[in-house]
Amino acid sequence: MPLIVMCGFPSSGKTRRANEIKDYFEKNTERKVHIVGDGTMRIEKNTVYAESPREKNVRGSLKAEVERKINKEDIVILDSLNYIKGYRYELFCLIKHTQTPHCVVSMTTVYCLTSVEVSSAWNSSREPKEQYTQEILDALVLRFEAPDSRNRWDSPLFTIQQEDTLPFDGISDAVFKRKAPPQNQSTLSQPLSSTNFLYELDKVTQEVLMAILNAQKTSIPGDLITVPGTTDKIEYTRSFNMAELRKLRRQFISYTKLHPTENIGHVSNMFVQYLNRSLN
Known about the structure:
10 helices, 7 strands
């Protein structure tokens, strides 16, 4: 079933539009519609978005709740900023992994496009406890990575401006008539194909860590670290310590044990991609 991802500046009308979409589908289909977002989780926005670790934890909780809500009947709307390109890509990978014979998921992005001035004015008109501080709002706008329909994880993309009426027919077609993205090797769940898989997984990920630790001795922020055996490179933005890398390695191994790949040669690239998303 569909995942509809709202996206936009703080106070750009995302929740209002999410509720309009919910009302439309509840009136015109027999499906349940679940909204998952900052409001449903009752987060303190100015506290969460002021601290990167807290914000990252909230994004993880939202993604986990989306995964719990997805089933073969319902529609899920993720009503949050969703302003990080890498996070929208993670959601795209999540729905590709969710495909089963009984649950086919598609992802549609609705981008609420407003100017900074309009968002700031709308923010000021809210109840004080619902407002972003101007400092937090400005920081989030500065970090915002706009969706781009040329990216497969942002397509289909519906860009909605302040006075626009939602294109309900178009969204409905994207939700119900568009084919779900095919699974690829990194998201397809498969049984362990070799008794040596866990050994190779442990060996390959350890080799990646050692390559990073050795390379960063002569690297400066902004460099790209080449890891032997991979086509992807590590974005070196700061010094990485061994404890941090080991923790991410354990997390990656735990996930890959449950969703192994038939080609161990893909693991190095998958691990590098995972590290880039987690470290930067």
